[in-house]
Specification:
- The complex is a heterotrimer of chains A (324), B (238) and C (240).
- Chain A is of the alpha/beta class and 324 residues long.
- Chain A contains 13 helices and ten strands.
- In chain A, the strands form three sheets. Chain A has a five-stranded mixed beta sheet with strand order 7-6-8-5-9. Chain A has a three-stranded antiparallel beta sheet with strand order 3-10-4, with helices on both faces. In chain A, strands 1-2 form a two-stranded parallel ribbon.
- In chain A, helix 2 links the parallel strand 1 and strand 2.
- With 238 residues, chain B is mostly helical.
- Chain B has eleven helices and no strands.
- The two termini of chain B are 38 Å apart.
- In chain C, 75% of the residues lie in helices and 2% in strands.
- Chain C is mainly α.
- A two-stranded antiparallel ribbon of chain C has the order 1-2.
- The chains are: A alpha/beta (324), B mainly alpha (238), C mainly alpha (240).
- Chains A and C meet through helix 1, helix 12 and helix 13 of A and strand 2, helix 2, helix 5, helix 7 and helix 8 of C.
């Protein structure tokens, strides 16, 4: 029996080692690496068209909402068209989470909004006066931390407060200032929003809105909550597809509490060097250049309203613009 | 490994700090969690117990009643909630319905087995003494079955309290709201939420254990520990 | 038909409009489901099965080893049960997240958590099964001159098989359920469409992924019952 027990203990140790080995081997076999994107069949034959060949794989993450999924797919497919190997990890989480993933090297890069970088990641409270200033602040911050950023996109996707058209008309709401006129009103938002300067905390400080009753909502259900009357107002994003329906009124933000939010691709500096530096960034910048507000809104609509796959939508967009 | 466990210990201390710093908030979430759980447990009891007792009394429907718990145990909880969101949308009701679906099977099976398995001699004696079937049910079968019946309720209750953490994903509130939001509450928050859910589950388990003990006729008592409750389905399943 | 903006603007293709069913977000859009079956749901299903198979397989080996140790050295039983019960009570949403700082957003993190959850059930069932071997059988083996080793492998474990199989069955079904939650840290499986659907509220996705997970669990359960019956025909017909 001693024999058996000893063997059991040895088996236990071996299994533990094997388990780690097997699971670790499968670890990068991720759900979101889509198979067979047509990218590789590029017709320009020169090796210069495939700068990604021979470079290590890059892990790109995205946050937990549709627009970021689309951005992730755009970058992934554009890079793969140039021979890079990309692991796309979608739906990682909010800014705080995904930034930790970046700094702890669980991912190499992700698309971030410049205002978010400054207010939430860098935790700086002074609002920028122009979009470019916001971008420069973000860039400087990341450079001190070992990351670097691409050129920003033309489009901005800013936080905003929205209500149903009926509610807004009933209470005469057109700008954020008007919220002070209400008695107590409910504001639905994801939990991070409550304490952020580019969130409820900022609303209190900049506009003096102290009559909001904060209701926590999971990201993605804001519009359902507005429709069902569960909340009076909700935090939404200005490029959300649902806004095109005309059912909602987005309150103007004259004092710019929500900052400027163009998208820049943040990547670890060392990794970028391994990937070929400028050549890699050129691909990203090539994509970013095309992302105007109409473009991203159309893609958001296709995915969120028409239920198309973000991979398909991204591919169509890139193909139409000759990046794939 | 030392660094890892050091970090973990530090995180656990941070978690308690978190609870202390956010006591009102955590208590609000705990109350939400319990409201949801007890609503579901209550509805499940109302559905499962009368049905199980009736079937057991009539000695009918054994296949369904007994396999209910096996099938219920197999139901992936998030999947049930997901289907619920599809049909009922987000919110309290949806999650409550999903939790009821998950809680009924163990309660039903135990109620059935408990009443069905009451000592036939005792039932015979009662009939011979001239009791009507309904009298037999209330004065003999139920009292003798109550202990095992309650074990099923206890299992269902613990399962509901633990699973109610998923409510956060469907807008149902509760301590899950803290656990899914590492972005806002950090690792200490996630740990704090986890600790409180676990504590709640043990608390509920303990309370029901005491009630079960009080309701079981002395002669039929056999002590079950928390681990046995966790594994009740395992014991049934052999 | 392409929409052209100013000279410098991008070309925005006309994307496919969703069907009426999809745009109105009706409960179940069969067309969407069938067009996404092989490129979305099948890969997720395969990932899910892989996650579960690895977890139960490795969990079984660890639990068996520990059970044999506990069977031989009784003092081991209590602490082992305690540790495994501790793992079991950690809420799964928390467990997966807590692994990430150590082992990243990888399958390894998910597997460590999933394996931990199987250990209590498997360990307790194997130990219980071994302890429930009738003393008569042990005496008979001894009388026949079998060594301790031989007794274990030819008498005790086979007689414990019903309990062991029951444990595997429950562990598998539980792991299928927990693996849906693993998608929270992005490792795929049938939970991934569920978490994605939370973003868009797309009912078909919720229902399709949910139903597939339920079916997977029922099929696995039924198959394991079958295996149990085949492997232990002598076990008296028990309920369930």
């Amino acid at each position: 029996m001693r024999d058996i027990a000893k063997r059991a203990a040895c088996g236990l140790l071996l299994t533990a080692a094997a388990a780690l080995g097997v699971a670790a081997c499968g670890s990068d076999n991720n759900s979101s690496t889509s198979t067979g994107s047509a990218a590789a069949t590029s017709t320009t034959a020169a090796a210069a068209a495939q700068p990604g060949k021979g470079k290590p794989a890059v892990t790109i993450g995205t946050k937990d909402f549709t627009e970021e999924f689309i951005l992730g797919e755009l970058y992934k497919q554009a890079l793969e068209a140039k021979g890079y190997t990309v692991n796309l990890k979608k739906n990682i989480g909010a800014t705080e989470i995904i930034d930790t993933a970046l700094t702890s090297h669980k991912i190499d890069a992700y698309p971030e909004y410049t205002g978010e970088s400054v207010a939430t990641v860098a935790k700086r409270n002074e609002p920028a006066k122009t979009a470019d200033e916001e971008y420069q602040l973000a860039k400087q911050f990341y450079e001190t931390r070992g990351q670097t950023v691409s050129e920003p996109t033309p489009f901005e996707d800013v936080d905003a407060i929205a209500a149903t058209k009926a509610y807004a008309q009933k209470h005469g709401l057109t700008t954020m200032e008007d919220l002070k006129k209400l008695g107590k009103f409910s504001l639905g938002a994801r939990p991070e929003f409550k304490n952020r300067q580019q969130g409820l905390a900022g609303m209190k400080k900049v506009y003096g809105i102290n009559n909001a009753d904060f209701r926590q909502l999971a990201l993605g259900v804001q519009y359902q909550a507005l429709d069902s009357g569960k909340v009076d107002t909700a935090n939404i994003f200005t490029t959300d597809a649902q806004l095109a329906s005309g059912k909602y009124t987005v309150l103007k933000d004259p004092k710019g509490v929500f900052g400027f939010q163009n998208v820049a691709f943040v990547i670890d500096k060392n990794k970028l060097a391994q990937l070929g530096g400028d050549q890699f960034m050129a691909v990203i910048n090539g994509v970013n250049k095309l992302l105007t507000t109409p473009a991203i809104t159309a893609m958001n609509k296709a995915v969120a309203i028409d239920k198309q796959d973000e991979a398909t939508v991204a591919k169509q967009f890139l193909t139409a613009n000759h990046l794939v | 490994m030392g660094k890892g466990t050091g970090r973990l210990m530090h995180s656990i201390i941070d978690a308690f700090q978190f609870i202390g710093d956010n006591l009102h908030f955590m208590l609000t979430k705990t109350v939400e969690h319990l409201e949801l759980s007890f609503a579901a447990i209550g509805v499940a009891i109302v559905i499962a117990i009368p049905l199980g007792v009736a079937l057991g009394h009539l000695h009918k429907g054994s296949f369904v009643a007994i396999n209910a718990s096996n099938m219920g145990r197999a139901l992936p909880s998030l999947a049930v909630i997901s289907i619920g969101i599809g049909f009922l949308g987000i919110g309290f009701i949806n999650v409550m319905v999903a939790l009821v679906i998950l809680a009924v099977p163990p309660m039903l099976t135990n109620a059935y087995v408990a009443v069905d398995g009451v000592d036939p001699d005792a039932v015979e004696a009662a009939r011979a003494a001239g009791m009507k079937p309904s009298q037999v049910l209330w004065t003999v079968e139920i009292p003798l079955a109550v202990g095992l019946m309650f074990a099923g309720i206890r299992t269902g209750a613990v399962y509901v309290v633990a699973t109610a953490t998923l409510a956060a994903l469907a807008g149902g509130g509760g301590l899950g709201d803290v656990i899914v939001n590492q972005a806002t509450y950090g690792t200490p928050g996630v740990l704090a939420g986890a600790l409180m859910v676990t504590a709640l589950a043990f608390l509920v388990e303990g309370v029901f254990a005491v009630i079960q003990r009080l309701l079981t006729p002395k002669a039929l008592r056999h002590e079950e520990g928390p681990v046995d409750v966790l594994l009740a389905p395992a014991i049934e399943g052999t | 038909m392409l929409v052209q903006l100013a000279q410098a603007g991008p070309v925005i293709p006309t994307f496919q409009r969703g069907s009426t069913c999809e745009r109105e977000n009706r409960h179940f859009c069969w067309d969407w489901f069938s067009s996404h079956w092989s490129n979305t749901f099948v890969p997720r299903l395969v990932e899910h099965i892989e996650l579960v198979a690895i977890a139960v397989g490795i969990g079984f080996v660890i639990a068996m080893a520990c059970a044999l140790i506990a069977y031989r050295w009784k003092w081991f039983d209590g602490p082992a049960t305690g540790v495994f019960a501790f793992f079991y009570t950690i809420p799964s949403l928390a467990f997966f997240q807590l692994m990430v700082p150590f082992t990243g957003l990888t399958r390894l993190s998910a597997e460590i958590a999933l394996i931990s959850y199987t250990l209590l059930i498997l360990f307790r069932n194997i130990v219980t099964g071994l302890h429930e071997v009738p003393p008569d059988a042990l005496e008979a083996a001894q009388a026949m001159g079998l060594t301790r080793n031989q007794t274990l492998w030819r008498v005790e474990l086979p007689l414990a098989l019903p309990a062991i199989m029951a444990g595997i069955r429950i562990a598998t079904v539980t792991t299928i359920s927990l693996a849906t939650i693993a998608a929270f840290i992005g490792v795929g499986g049938l939970g991934q469409p569920i978490f994605n659907a939370i973003q868009t509220g797309f009912k078909t996705q919720f229902i399709a992924a949910g139903v597939l997970a339920v079916l997977l669990a029922f099929v696995a359960d039924a198959l394991l019952v079958l295996v149990q019956r085949l492997l232990t025909p002598w076990a008296r017909a028990r309920v369930g």
